[in-house]
Amino acid sequence: MVSLDLRKISEAVSDFFIVCEASSTVQVRAIAGWVESEVKDACDERPYKHEGHSAGQWILIDYVNVVVHVFLAETRKFYKLEEMWSDGVAEEEADPITEAPAKATKAAKKTRKTTKK
Question: Number of structural domains, the chain?
Fold first, then answer.
């Protein structure tokens, strides 16, 4: 899993991208569902928008300031999202299943603090 801090990029569509991958469409859907559940429980936030659940190859969960991308491994390789946003500060994490919800929650809380000032 990779966290991309995009706050210093003027044309960025969000403050943070969280990018992770799974080995099957079932796992992509499970991770995306888990992220939504964990963020809801921790921050009482529902996504502004989510896309890709039916195909299950790339699920995007948009919390406006934080966007979580859950990819099927080969889809992630094809789109190379990290390369497209390489001006952002990337932070690599070891395990997407345990880290994605925590990272999304942490980024959402951090963003919420900075936007309330």
Answer: 1
